[in-house]
Every structure is written in C-alpha cells, then in structure tokens.
Amino acid sequence: MNKNFFGNLLIAGSALALCGCMVGPDFEKPEPKLGEKWNQEISGKLLTDGEESKKVSPEEIAHWWKIFGDEQLTSLIERAFENNLDLAAATATITQARANLGIVQSGFFPTLDTSAGVTEKGRTMHDTATSYGMGATAGWEIDLFGGTRRSIESAVASYRATLADKCATRILVAAEVANNYFSYRALQQELIITKSNLETQKKTYRITLERKAKGFVSQLDVVRAAAEVDSTSSQIPTLQKDLVQTRHALELLLGLQSGALEKELEEPKDLPELERFIPVGVPANLLERRPDIISAEYNLHKAVAAVGNAEADFYPKFFINGSISYEAPKIGNIVKSQYGTWSVGPSATWNIFQAGKTVFNVEMQKGVVAQMGANWKSAVLTAIKEVEDALVASAKERERIGYINRLVENNRKAFDLSSTLYSEGEIEFLDLLVSQRSMLQSEQNQISSRQLFISHIISLYKSLGGGWTMEDLKDDPQKTEWLFFKDSFGMGEPESENLKVVEASEADK
What we know:
single chain; about 500 residues; alpha+beta; Outer membrane efflux proteins (OEP); four-stranded antiparallel β-sheet; 12 helices; about 10% strand
C-alpha cells in the first residue's frame, strides 16, 4: 500500500510537471522588414552599361574566397579555421554553454542523496555504544507553472547563440585572412614598382652627372636628381616594415609564431584580375543568413524565456520529498526492517511577501527583452548598411580604377617622352623630375586601388554572412545526446526560418 502510494505520487508529479502550464510570454520570431526598393536595386550597383547581373549563389557566399582562384589563400583560410585562437575561444564558449544547459536541465528531475556513518554514544567515556547508520533522501520539485522549463528554454537559446557566434567568428577570421593576404601581395608589388622606379631614377642621376660634366646642366639639376633618388629610397624601409608586420598579422590569425609564413609567402604574386568579381547580383534575403542576426534572435528568445522564469516566482512551488534510514547496533543488521524508518509526501512553499523582489525581477527581465529586441533590429539595420556600403564602395572604386589605369598609361608615356627630350636638351630637368614623380605615384596608386577594390569585395561577402555552412551551426551529436527537450526548444534544428536559405544551399551540393 505504501509502495503504491509512493509510486502514484511519482507518476502524478511527472504528469503535472509535463502537462502543467508555462507562465510568461511565448517567443515569437521577429521578422526583418527589407524594403522592396533595396531588394530591386541592390543587384545593379556594380553594373556598367552592357553588363548583366549574375546572382550570387548561397554556395558562393559560403566559400567566397574561392572566387579569387588562389589556392594559397584557400589553404591559409582553411588552416585559420583549424588553428585560430579566437575560434578556439568560441569553441570553449560553446562547451561552457552546453554544460550550463546540462546544469539547468538537471533541475527538472528528482534528486537523490545517500549517507552512511558510525556513531559512538554514551554517558561517560567508559560507558559507550556503537551504532551504524545509512539512509537516502529524495526530492523533486514539480514544475507545475513552468519556471524550470522556461529556464531550460532560456539556456537552450543561449547555447544556440554561442553556435551562431562561432559562425560569426569564422566570417571575421576568413575576411581578416583574405584582407591581410592581399595587403601582403599588394605591398610586394609596391616594393617591386618602387625599386624599379628607383633604378630608373639612379639612371637619370647618372645621365645628369654626365650632362653636368659636359656643361649642359647646372649643379642644381644634379642635386635634384640625387634628392629624388633618396626620396624614393626612403620609401623602401617603410614598405618592408609594413610587409613584415602584415605577415605577422597573418601568422597570428593562423595561430602561428612570427616568421612561420616567411618562406611560404616569399615569392611575389600579382593581385587577381578585377573583372573576375563583377557583375555581382545580391539577393536581399541573403542578409538573413548572417550569424550575428541569428545570434541576436536567440538572445531575444533567451530573454523572453527568462521573463517566464521570473513570473513563475509569483506562484507556489510543489515538491515530493522522501527519505529512508536505518540505524543498527551491528553493521550486519543495518538493513533489517526493524531498524529502518521511511517517509514520503508532498509539500509546498509560496513566497507571500518579498518586498517587491519578484515584481522588480520581472520588470528587469522585461527590460532585457526590450534591449535584446533593439539589438536584433540594430543587427538587421547594420547588415543592410554594411551591404549597401560595400556595394557603393566597390562600384566607385571600380570606376576610380578605370581612371587610374589611363593615368598610369599616360604618365609612362609622358616619362618616356620627357627622358628623350631631356637627353636631347629640349626640356629642363624639373620637367623630367615631375614626370618621374607622377609615374611612380600613379603606379603605386594603381596597386593600392586594386587592393582596395578587393577589400571592398571581401567586405561585401562578409556583410552577406559568407564564410560558414549549415553544419557549422550544429554541434557534435555525440556531445548533445544526453540533452533532453530537443524537440520542445529547437535543439534538433535551428528555430529560425531565416536559415532556409542556408539549408537550400547545402541541399544544392
């Protein structure tokens, strides 16, 4: 009879916990409002007359660095994904969130404690008796109003946010590796151009010396030629310093010690052809695959669930408690029924007065919801801004490159003509000096502009959430098989409908 009573209490408690109501608001997924005008115009920002927009596929977004056709860049990014320290820290954060979810989840289940001991009893030091005892106590809070379930819901959302944060870190790492890599290649090209111009200026200096010896020019021209050689020479140490520091930044991104990539990157490479990256058509809904927006959504869900957990404190808490103990004079008799006692039964507590603590806690959690909602809206608007900025910057830099290319061509012609005329004594040295400076400056600007255009293209793919796949948003199943409530709180699949774009790209593979 007593055993049946205890079993019935457990069954009743389980039913109440699972079927009881959950106080507090239910989470409703926010919907981004993207203007039709933006959706229609975004694909044409990089187009010129006669070009047709080509849509960028989700697969291209996920592995955007492959568009450059540089196997070395691809290798560097893949190694960074394996060894980057920020990604290692993000992985550790996921481990913490997963463990915290396990801790919170344990609050839904009964607890069981056991004890054992030996006791000496007596009136005097010589009149004592020994007794042996052992026992167990069990307790279970029946989650009738859903406070514990809301805590689990909040912990699940927090855990999933860390997975999205790791994806966001992947995006940053890939973009930083690519930017530093192309900066390094651009600096190598600038060094080549500067050294080539330096040799030309040294040749001009020697010609000026010869003309001075023949009395054709004054000492002023010689001094000016020497000064120009020194001016260009002074740029080389700065470029070399920038080159080494850029390589150091790249090595840090790969989790390597300084100098580890020196031999691998020693051979200079030209920057990739610009025509490869245009035209670019950008579907507006690809913004919804950005992990920072996904993370903001999970954080909003976490805050909403925390409101329900706080509101549960307005209601009573119900428990089932039980205990059993034995105490016997001999250890061999300890489990005999005549030495044992047991108890089992329900109990309840209700915080009637706490001077407004629960009320203020609910208000505080609602304030967090408002904050997280604002953060989500900010993430969406920031995403739109970043895409628009990258498109405008790319379009204008591409236009600028066209002018610079013609400028470089004309400056080279002007310098060749000036050199000939100066050798023939037709122009003053100052005219030759101006043409030399203009040619060097325009060639350096050409490399800088090409590298800047590539940087804008990288920013565009970064702003579109490029650099991760659906698998990166999922945890290792072996590490989560012990978790319950997967279906209840979105553990099985990401809750965000925004991820359908990502899922579609994975299906296309």
